[in-house]
Amino acid sequence: MKRLIAILLSLFAVGCVVYSDHPITPEDKTAFDSLLFGTWFWNEKDEKGFLHFGIEEKSGLLHVMVVDLDKDGTQKVSEYLGHTSDLKGNKYLNLKQLRPDNKRKGYLFVKYRIKKNVLTISIIDNSTVEEAIKKGSLKGVVDDEKSITRITEEQKKLQNFILKNDKKLFDEETSINRLSIPMMK
Length: 185
Hints:
By secondary structure, the protein is α+β, with helices and mostly antiparallel strands.
């Protein structure tokens, strides 16, 4: 759990994260998975945190905020804009980081599924993408010195690659629960 949340919290400080020049599907401000909307949480021995999903007012895009609280009270916040994609029943987030730092432009891909009040997420595996780029089956750049892997493949070929390699690309999963908040009167 900590690995996935840590990646979401510090994408641009942590190496070995995959970015793409193109989203999986074109940006569509009208096609959101409304089942994501709301707050999800995790509660572990040394940390707890929240994932908030909604629509960002100014851009109309999916807005994701991650708040991580360490046991000593230290709080880390990261924020993303993006949209959802559906490829043959598989659902993905296409996210661009807003904060804490958006120096690296590009999309992060997160596969997700929702069953009842549980959200299961999986971030794309760097080693699988690196291997494909080095073999020439996916266009991209691997910069070992800067710990950056960037997919440059055009969208249709990217979709085909993801569908063909989905199980290997998104093999590590984490599940978190929906936070049920009583309605205000």
